[in-house]
């Protein structure tokens, strides 16, 4: 039986386990990446493991999230990451060089390689034929130390693309169409592989836009073939020697096949407050808007920006609209400046941001109260923009640019024939903001520099046999990591200070949560479906651990967050009967009377609701390896025991 692209890469990197869907497998990882909002913790964890130097082919630390320096905290974290990187064999991308996923695609990604990153949009690398996973910082630290990366073997979904995109229809509309079909839960446990004759019509940046937002499907990762389009992109980046052809076998078997005719698509928008709340732009046309933000790791490529510049050339932004532009990398910025496109963007009245994540992560540019904001980003969760009542829509760069000029939602097809934009044969290459690590023989000469905002990691102890706590919070479906541990300019600078950060935990849902946990000595969280969707930020597990949360009991979980809970030593438990969710109320006293033995034996978990005198059966969302981890008190303790 033939193999899919993903199965071929998995087979070549398989260290442990068998490729049976749903079973635990361990993979050798070729490359890792971190960003600064998650990187400080990842490197503190790496240091705690006692491995002197990374063992990957290439590990890169990017500074792209916490670039707004209104205090010393972010600058101190950057200084710490730079010194750790220099000492331990990690390449360091300086602030201003660009967004990790855009940069990694340009300068380091290669077909057939495995990559994990402490950011949920790491699957962007699938656009170049990598098997790229978002993961928690602890998993990245283990991979840097030479350890395996463990996932449950996914099933394989094929998205068969036919036809060709019509004028003014973009890659963003492709992935929004997939989200419309599958929903934010539709990719859970799956690898999404794009193929068919339509795939060859898409450039690498367009493919990367699609794989980037596979994270919003809940997919394990997404991937495109590596073909002549990939070869041309790598050659234009001066990396032709890193190309290899990758395709699925003709007789490859998929668990699911979805067909999309590219020629039938029209401009789409994801409406507030979910990436799968998709409507045609034509149905929204005429709605007054307040803001447009173009950029993020989803839509900040040279191709995207050139298309935007062509729309804006000779025009002026509507007086009631604020338009911001953030290029994905210094390479894109330089090329726009050199060819005059940047001048066209500036002349139209756009506000130019630095090459960073910026408003996508809530780092500035929050909309006005109740403002309508069109963003080319990947998430529009409630409050993520920094304005609690903002109405955020996800759209293509073409739709955003057209709407910014008109002052209202505008179908770009109304603009007539688009300018013809082609991929360059040669990109401008200047890696002067990437600092290589020091030679291994000189490691001892480097002092790791720690600022006062960097606090020790919270570490769980071995699992107790009996846990009795109150249900300190009960929430519904689709709780995101933004709900659990918000982002934004006021909070992100404290990502390396868990005690301070703890006061914001679940504040979106319940402002009293942190104080209640401290008063009760911790507790358990009760949740609905798809708990922990969104970002890979392990702070959404580390902070609850610090607050004394011993278990989360949910109807279902997002993949990365369930792994992060296990990594920290918090039990991810799931109702066997979803109706039992209704048998627990906030502040009920709950007990797991025999949990240590049940976890060790791989048995169902017994929960007693002492308040209601009810008994409930749960399953532990854990692989055999993860059971050993939580018994030890998390991945860090488990790794030390293995050594």
Could you please describe the fold and organization of this structure?
- With 643 residues, the chain is an alpha/beta fold.
- It has 21 helices and 27 strands.
- The strands form six sheets. Strands 21-22-23-24-27-26-25 form a seven-stranded mixed barrel, surrounded by four helices. A six-stranded mixed beta sheet has the order 7-6-3-4-5-20, with helices on one face. Strands 17-16-15-18-19 form a five-stranded parallel beta sheet, covered by helices on one side.
- Helix 17 links the parallel strand 22 (523-526) and strand 23 (549-554).
- The longest helix has 17 residues, at 72-88.
- It is globular and about 70 Å long.
- The protein starts with a helix and ends with a helix.
- The model has no long low-confidence stretch (mean pLDDT 96).
């Amino acid at each position: 039986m033939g193999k899919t692209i993903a199965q071929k890469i998995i087979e070549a990197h398989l260290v442990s386990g068998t490729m049976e869907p749903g079973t635990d497998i361990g993979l050798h990882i070729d490359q890792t990446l971190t960003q600064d909002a998650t990187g400080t913790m990842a490197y503190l964890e790496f240091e705690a493991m006692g491995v002197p130097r990374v063992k990957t082919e290439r590990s890169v630390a990017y500074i792209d999230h916490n670039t707004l320096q209104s205090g010393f905290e972010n600058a101190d974290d950057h200084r710490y990451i730079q010194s750790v990187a220099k000492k331990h064999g990690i390449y360091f991308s300086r602030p201003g060089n660009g967004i990790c996923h855009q940069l990694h695609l340009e300068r380091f990604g290669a077909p057939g390689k495995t990559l994990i990153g402490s950011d949920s949009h790491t699957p962007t690398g699938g656009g170049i034929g990598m098997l790229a996973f978002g993961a928690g910082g602890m998993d990245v630290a283990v991979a840097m130390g030479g350890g395996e990366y463990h996932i449950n073997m996914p099933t394989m979904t094929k998205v068969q693309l036919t036809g060709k995109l019509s004028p003014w229809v973009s890659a963003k509309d492709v992935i929004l169409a997939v989200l419309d079909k599958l929903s934010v839960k539709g990719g859970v446990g799956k690898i999404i592989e794009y193929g068919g004759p339509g795939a060859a019509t898409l450039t690498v940046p367009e493919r990367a836009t699609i794989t980037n937002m596979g994270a919003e499907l809940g997919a394990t990762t997404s991937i495109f073939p590596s073909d002549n389009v990939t070869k041309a992109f790598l050659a234009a980046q001066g990396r032709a020697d890193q190309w290899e052809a990758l395709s699925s076998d003709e007789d490859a078997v998929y668990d699911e096949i979805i067909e999309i005719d590219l020629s039938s698509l029209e401009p789409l928008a994801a409406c507030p407050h979910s990436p799968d709340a998709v409507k045609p732009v034509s149905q929204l046309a005429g709605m007054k808007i307040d803001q447009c933000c173009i950029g993020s790791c989803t839509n900040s490529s040279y191709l995207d920006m050139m298309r935007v510049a062509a729309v804006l050339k000779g025009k002026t932004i509507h007086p009631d609209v604020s338009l911001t532009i953030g290029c994905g990398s210094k390479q894109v910025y330089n090329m726009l400046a050199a060819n005059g496109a940047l001048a066209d963007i500036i002349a139209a009245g756009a506000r130019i941001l630095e090459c960073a994540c910026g408003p996508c992560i809530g780092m500035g540019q929050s909309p006005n109260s109740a403002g309508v904001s069109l963003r080319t980003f990947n998430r529009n969760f409630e409050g993520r923009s920094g304005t609690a009542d903002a109405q955020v829509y996800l759209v293509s760069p073409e739709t955003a640019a057209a709407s910014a000029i008109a002052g209202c939602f505008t179908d770009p097809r109304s603009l007539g024939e688009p300018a013809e934009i082609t991929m360059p044969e040669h990109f401008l290459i200047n890696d002067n903001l990437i600092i290589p690590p020091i030679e291994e023989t000189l490691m001892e000469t480097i002092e790791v520099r720690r600022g006062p905002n960097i606090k020790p990691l919270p570490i769980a102890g071995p699992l107790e046999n009996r846990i009795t706590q109150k249900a300190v919070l009960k929430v519904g479906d689709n709780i995101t990591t933004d709900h659990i541990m918000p982002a934004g300019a006021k909070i992100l600078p404290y990502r390396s200070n868990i005690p301070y950060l703890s006061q914001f935990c679940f504040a979106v849902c319940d402002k009293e949560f942190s104080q209640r946990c401290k008063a009760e000595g911790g507790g358990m969280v009760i949740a609905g479906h798809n708990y922990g969707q969104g970002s890979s930020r392990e702070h959404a597990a580390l902070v609850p651990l610090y607050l004394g949360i011993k278990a989360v009991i949910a109807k279902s979980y997002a993949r990365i967050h369930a792994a992060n809970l296990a990594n920290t030593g918090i039990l991810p438990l799931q109702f066997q009967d979803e109706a039992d969710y209704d048998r627990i109320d906030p502040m009920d006293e709950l007990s797991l009377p025999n949990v240590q033995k049940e976890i060790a034996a791989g048995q169902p978990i017994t929960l007693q609701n002492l308040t209601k005198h009810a008994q409930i059966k749960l399953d532990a969302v854990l692989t055999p390896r993860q059971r050993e981890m939580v018994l030890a008190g998390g991945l860090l303790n488990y790794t030390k025991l293995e050594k």
